[in-house]
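Inputs:
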Amino acid sequence: MSRIKKKSMSILFAILFAYASLVATHEGEFWPFSIYPMFSQAGNPWTRSFVRDVSDELRPIESSIQTEQELYGKPFVLNSIGVHQNDLSNFLSKNNEWTPTRKQAVRNYFKNELDTKRLVIYKVRGELESGKVAMIYEPFMYLNADTTIVLN
Amino acid sequence: METFFSKIFNWNVPLTEGKRLYFRIVEVVLGLQIMYNIWGWAFYIQDLTEVVLPLGLANYIDVSYSFGSNLPILNAAIISGLLVMGFLRKWRHSYILALLFFHLQYIARFSQGEISHGTNLGGIILLSIGASFSVVRKEEDALKTALGLIFFFVGLGYMSAAFSKLIGTGLHWADGEHLRLWIAERGTDKLSQNGVFELNILQTFLLEHTWAATLTLGFGLLVELSGFLLWFRKTRWIQTTFLLSMHVGIVATLNIYFSDYVYLLLLIGYPWDLLLEKVVNRHPILKTI
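Outputs:
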């Protein structure tokens, strides 16, 4: 085997070994290596989030499952503050323990808004029920100028 | 075995001026794409405060050191400098070092819970080029090695995505009902991000006709499974066309645009070197690039 062939094959197998070892020991992800598991578990319920501006809301903010018509306030668009939906959504869904610093991290996303607005972050759950997508809306976090309340 | 890999690396095929120019274009496009990402991330990282999900090396080092500081900007400048040095052939290890700093920028940016795959393809291509230049001294051989590695690992990545789906769900992954659930999920995301979401014609059609949704998902799964067709020159352009169709389908049905993938696939998947060979022959000055 010529020199170039030996070198090419050595690099290929070295990268392949690194690829397999790193994804095997890091739950399928070690950038730039990945097993690309997105959308791999089809049919499973999902949980996302969205934000509502409740500055003019007269009802008391409570943690209760709502329908789309019962949502508090009006939509708050994340593009208006340059925050990525995936960041906020994953921050909420993958966080089990709400320490003061983590609450502050959420507040930090909205740092220029909270002096003038009251916001509620909803968790939205979607699941298949008899061929239809059922959506469940639940107020999860309330934020105003000086308060952060995890509602459930 | 050797014949199999010979078809991927084309060791015995002489490197034409057209292919050399083509490779330079790949380097430029890749470099610009990386710079676009790392500089955008640099300013976003400054506003972060907390690591929620450590990825990659962030499992071993605390990346919060870079939050609220100018370090991400410094890192972006270092990566940019290394990419330029690599392109100018000033130091043969500069591309592979750029990959390491790119990794650090990625794990700081994606420490908030999201696992982004948008730059994985660019990372794999940079790794292929960087490893080849670091190990193979003769430029002609390094280019052949790099291109072979790119085709091999990009193809492997798509196959891996297909196997993840088959292992994670099984053959019924392609059931059109699943698309219904994902469209609703993406609708929630778009509504939150932009304030509006309306179903397009294709989404409406797929939601009304489950058989069509099943066919769409089945096509995507089959195309990913055929990732190995990228390995061979004769089938590469066909597989690239199918992959691009799949990515267009993902945009139309799920509003997810893997722009980096589309541009890089367009570049690496078609035999542009044949066209460039004719251009170089007409304009020999291009040989100096």
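Remarks. Residues 1-156+273-289 of chain B form one domain. The mean pLDDT of chain B is 94.
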